[in-house]
Amino acid sequence: MTYTSNPVLDKLPAHLQQYIKPQDYGEYSAIDQAVWRYVMRKNVDYLSKFAHASYLVGLQKTGISIDHIPNMYGMNRILKEIGWAAVAVDGFIPPSAFMEFQAYNVLVIASDIRQLDHIEYTPAPDIIHEGAGHAPIIANPEYAEYLRRFGEIGSKAISNSKDYELYEAVRHLSIIKEAQGTPQEDIDQAEKHIEDLQNNMGEPSEIALIRNLHWWTVEYGLIGTPENPKIYGAGLLSSIGESAWCMTDEVKKKPYSIDAAYASFDITQPQPQLFVTPDFAYLSQVLEEFANTMALRRGGLSGIKKLIASKELGTIELSTGLQISGNFDSVIEHEGKPVFFQSIGPTALSFRDKELVGHSIKQHATGFGSPLGKLKGMNLAIEDMSPLDLKAYNIFEGQQISLEFDGHIKIAGEIITGTRNLQGDIILVTFKNCCVTHNDKVLFESNDELYSMAVGQEIASAYNGPADLSSFNLVTHKVSSTTIKSKSNASHTQLEQYYEQIRHFREGKNITISRHKVFEAIRDNYPNDWLLPVELYELAKENGDHEFAHEISVHLQTVKLNNPKVGHLIDDGLDLVNHKCQTEKLK
How many angstroms separate the most distant Cα atoms in the chain? Predict the structure, then answer.
């Protein structure tokens, strides 16, 4: 195990553990720590006025410091008190896995941190976005339950064959866009590839629609009224640029509804519109409304067709509760209903999410197919027959029988046994010397080999993933691309050392450091660096060294002239310091 566990993490199945990586806290440089501190100080100052009240309360409850990048081991000691945990991962992980982590009350945190050049916003998930954005709000019980429930439902959403390709493309773009020195033409090409994919996705899948809901709530949600909204979405809470911009009239505010599922988004651009929920409870109401549209609850012919189109491991649950998990290949329909289904490759049968004895992927290694529905000319379905009814229709052990279902599906053979659930209802009928046909086409034929016929009048549910997680080997994750670590050189290493010296001075670890000498070195050798001079300005003001503070301020004006893009960041940093000093004077 590559991480420190807690009772919440102990419940994670192996196929989710495969995404977890250790958080190597020693890899964070003093520059990284300064980036975290700047963003958090600015966020807390701004968001204390514009974020939902749960944000500041949550920072304290989840143990997230303003001055230090959170250590997940420390976070987990605190998070377990509210029934949650956090793990580190490498950037984006597949949407279904991300949702499933949420269903287990686990917060997935990309442990990398954005570069100083991208301090306002990065398309790549990072610890600022996850730790400072997601974690505080889950301290609100209503929202935490929404997040868990969202994960539970979202992990069952069915994808299509293009969804994974889009995920890989977005992951690739987020990596190269955050990586230092990526040629602009490579970024343009990656963005064009995503645009082409998005324009040719066809009808959106369930996972695409619920991902939209996730984006407009968990990531970019507002709460309150369109006229007076507050921020709760992690993407806004962690973006010092967009959290301010989203409050302007340039961003359209819409009342949140299920329509948000059909509102697409561009991960590379600030959002031109946002949705406002009246309260956290309403989020759950819309989620349930959306879940009612999913194959998870609707089942039927459309449900199994979604699974066939996805080409992914999925499950159908019949009206008897019997669950068939595998890769579904075909379905025969009659009058708008499925009358026969077929999976290919390893398939397992379960009941109440527990694999049935004798029906593992070993027993059904090449697939599983079965008739569905009612017997022709009979109003009573097999699943509704009592033992006396079954005997009356010769459906019992030792009988040579031929059954014809609606839709011209016939099964003939010798009944060996039946399998019943805990309520005594029959869910499987096992034959030998069996032949299954559709009109004149043979669908299955066996001699000594046993054949199990599923009992079920209809498909009650269809969803992504297996019914029993232990039925399949799901530890197959292979990362196609990993986040790119910035290459260091002597000059950058020296800059990191200057940042570390000032950090140690501020924390009292080494108060003999000459801040004046550090400032001169930065001014002469790193004329474009602005964050360390801002930190030096803060120390000068706190120590009452007004002459030194003025010298730094003059230098920062030069930096602004040479690089106008960072002007507002410098101004904001100085304003924070001046406001703090002014407040302390008034006390």
Answer: 102
How would residue 1 be classed by pLDDT, with cut points 50, 70 and 90?
very low
Tens of pLDDT along 499-529?
Answer: 999 999 999 998 899 999 999 999 999 999 9
Q: How far is CA 99 from CA 107, 259, 493, in A?
A: 10, 21, 39
Nearest to 125 by CA among 110, 106, 108, 107: 110
Beta-strand relationship, 441-445 and 459-464: unpaired
Instruction: Return the pLDDT at 178.
Output: 64
Side-chain half-sphere CA neighbours of 269 within 13 A: 10
pLDDT tens for 442-479 read 999 987 789 999 999 999 999 999 999 999 998 875 55
Residue 248's CB is within 10 A of a number of other CB atoms, namely 7
Q: Report CA-CA distances (Å) from 227 to 34, 51, 129, 239.
A: 35, 15, 26, 22
CA dist list (Å): 531 to 6, 160, 336, 422: 37, 45, 65, 66
Reference 222, options 210, 211, 231, 213; nearest CA is 231
Label the pairing between strands 441-445 and 426-438. antiparallel
Rg (CA), the chain: 30
Q: Answer positive or negative: Cα dihedral of 253, 256, 261, 262.
A: negative
> Position 374: which residue type?
K
Q: From CA 193, how far away is CA 189, in angstroms rounded?
A: 6
Nearest CA among 340, 358, 341, 336 for reference residue 349: 358
SS3 readout for 424-471: CCEEEEEEEEEEEEECCEEEEECCCCCEEEECCCCEEEEEECCCCHHH
Contact between 353 and 323 (Cβ < 8 Å): yes
**Short-list 369, 461, 457, 470, CA closest to 157:** 461
Smallest CA-to-CA distance from 383 within 356, 349, 419 is with 419
CA dihedral 514→520→521→525, nearest 10 degrees, is: 170
Compute the distance between CA of residue 177 and CA of residue 170 in angstroms, rounded to an integer. 10
Comparison of pLDDT for 484 and 431, the residue scoring more: 431
User: What's phi and psi for 162, nearest 5 deg?
Assistant: -90, -15
Buried b (16+ CB within 10 A) or exposed e, 83-115: ebbbbbbbbbbbbbbbbbbbbbbbbbbbbbbbb
pTM, to two decimals: 0.86
